[in-house]
Structure formats: structure tokens, C-alpha cells
Design brief:
Elements: H1 2-6, H2 19-23, H3 33-42, H4 44-53, H5 60-76, H6 79-92, E1 96-98, E2 104-106, H7 110-131, H8 138-154, H9 166-179, H10 185-195, H11 208-229, H12 232-238, H13 244-260, H14 266-269, H15 272-292
Antiparallel strand pairs: 1-2
Helix pairs in contact: 3-7, 3-10, 3-11, 5-6, 5-15, 7-8, 10-11
């Protein structure tokens, strides 16, 4: 019995030394979250549930902030990362939606729940290709995927939905992309809100024109990056155009970002949760060194 238990993959938090620890907290992480969310919404079940229950149309900034904070907690939260996985499962358990064809979709159905995280390796490799100084090597892609597998287990994805190798993952991703994903109306609504970011619901009405003016360029940029970092198959299904000129602009933008971001101080380079986790780790290391050299 104990031998069988020992073979069951365990949930465990991430820590320093992992790829996710070094990269998931970078501000550049947000550049491919748009494409990741669009791919998630293209899954009929995810699209149906999000379409009915999400506030992304009315509180785009709040939804995005909460989503990024949750992802940061998955990686940098220590034991709280596992609690966050439990919280998300409990929050999504009652969510379901019935589409126009009478099909009922459940948020925690194993395939759709897995697809949420299966978009992550694509987002990381695409982000590195466009917004880092070099793309991921084959070995790095394998290493990242191994960590994503652990993340899926932490988030209660059932083992049958986790492709065992990176090559298996690529095959699964392409299969879902080609045969499962659709141009769900929620995707077009999301793309519209990414281009014209709605003001936060609590923003006083007199300030909303200022918000729209300030958000115009960031929204235009986010929409451009989201469309550009989607797989071509997804763009075709959504009826989105992407020209060679667009691709060159995105690559030029990526080179600028890849040059500037590594030069920023850590307080600007990382999201707050990641920054504080990294700071706490260094402080703990300093305490350990001090204790090791204390007079005895």
C-alpha cells in the first residue's frame, strides 16, 4: 500500500531555482496573458461558463488584476499556493452554463479545467520568443513543461488530462486547437474590451472621459499583442487578420522590451507578489547565514 501511495504525484509549492520562480513574476508575463485567455475562451465549455459568470466586460481591469494575483500566488505563495488551488476549485464548483444548443457546461469538467493550464506552456514559449533576449531552448521547454505539470497537480487537474511529455503536450495542444476550439462570442467581446478598456465600475462618472483617454494607447497595444501572439489557427478561426507588416512591428516591439526590462530594478521588473516573495527569500537566506556564523 505504501509503495502505491509513494507513486502518486504530490502537490507541492514552487520555490527559488525553478523557471516559474524566475519568470512568472516578470511584468512581461502579462503580455501573453491576453492570448492565453482568448485561447481559453475558445474552448466551448470555458467560453460558455465565462460568458455567463465573468465580469470581464464590465470590470476588465479588476478581473485581470485578480487573475494575475492568483497566478502569482500559484508560484510565489508557498503553502498559500496550494490553498489558492483549493479556493479556486471551491469557487468554480457551482459554476455551469447551458448554451444555445441546450448543452450544459460545468466549470470543473476535467478537460476544460485542464485546458486553462494547458495554455500556459504556449504562453511561456511564445513570450520568450517575442519578449526575451532569446527563445527557450529545447531543454528549457521540457523543463518549463515539467513545472507546468506540477502546477496542474497543485490545481487539482486530474492525471489523465496531463500529457506526460512535452511532445505529448504539443500534440494535445494542436488537437484541441484544431478540433475543439471555436470562435465563441465571448472571445470577440474579450478582444473588444482589451482594445477599449472599460473604466472600473467604481470610478466616478466625471473621471471616465479621462480614463478612456489614458487607456486608449495601452488598450491598442494590448489588443495588438494579443492578436499577434495567438496561434495562426486561432486567428483564422476568429477571423482576425495579421499581416507581415504587423509581425515585423511586433518583433521590433519585442526587441525593445527584451532590451529594456532586464535593465529595470527588481521593484519595477516584477509584480508585487513575486517581488515580495523574492525579497523574503533573500532575507531568509541572510538569516540562515547569520545563524550559521553566530558565536557558540
Amino acid at each position: 500500500m505504501s509503495q502505491t501511495v509513494d507513486t502518486i504525484p504530490r502537490r507541492r509549492p514552487f520555490g527559488p531555482g525553478s523557471y516559474l520562480w524566475e519568470h512568472a513574476g516578470l511584468i512581461t508575463f502579462s503580455l501573453t496573458t491576453g492570448a492565453g485567455f482568448a485561447l481559453q475562451l475558445m474552448h466551448p465549455s470555458v467560453g460558455a461558463v465565462v460568458d455567463e459568470h465573468s465580469v470581464f466586460r464590465t470590470d476588465a481591469v479588476g478581473r485581470a488584476s485578480r487573475s494575475i494575483a492568483s497566478v502569482q500566488t500559484w508560484v510565489y505563495g508557498g503553502e498559500e499556493a496550494l490553498a489558492e488551488g483549493d479556493r479556486l476549485r471551491a469557487m468554480h464548483a457551482p459554476l455551469k452554463s447551458t448554451d444555445a444548443d441546450g448543452v450544459t457546461h460545468h466549470a470543473l469538467a476535467s478537460g476544460p479545467w485542464a485546458w486553462i493550464i494547458l495554455t500556459s506552456p504556449y504562453a511561456f514559449t511564445t513570450g520568450a520568443r517575442y519578449f526575451s533576449r532569446r527563445p527557450l531552448s529545447a531543454a528549457e521547454r521540457e523543463s518549463v513543461y515539467a513545472e507546468i505539470k506540477q502546477l496542474m497537480r497543485n490545481l487539482h487537474v486530474v492525471e489523465k488530462e496531463i500529457p506526460p511529455t512535452y511532445d505529448d503536450y504539443l500534440a494535445r495542444f494542436d488537437e484541441i486547437l484544431d478540433h475543439t476550439l471555436v470562435a465563441h462570442p465571448a472571445v470577440h467581446d474579450f478582444l473588444a474590451t482589451s482594445r477599449t478598456i472599460p473604466p472600473p465600475p467604481k470610478l466616478p462618472r466625471p473621471l471616465r472621459p479621462l480614463w478612456r483617454a489614458a487607456a486608449f494607447l495601452p488598450g491598442k497595444l494590448q489588443h495588438f499583442v494579443t492578436v499577434g501572439t495567438l496561434p495562426e489557427t486561432a486567428r483564422a478561426k476568429l477571423g482576425l487578420t495579421w499581416t507581415d507588416s504587423d509581425e515585423r512591428k511586433l518583433r521590433r516591439l519585442g526587441r525593445v522590451i527584451a532590451t529594456i526590462v532586464p535593465l529595470l530594478p527588481e521593484r519595477l521588473r516584477y509584480f508585487p507578489i513575486a517581488r515580495e516573495a523574492r525579497k523574503a527569500h533573500r532575507a531568509n537566506q541572510a538569516l540562515t547565514r547569520t545563524l550559521a556564523t553566530r558565536p557558540l
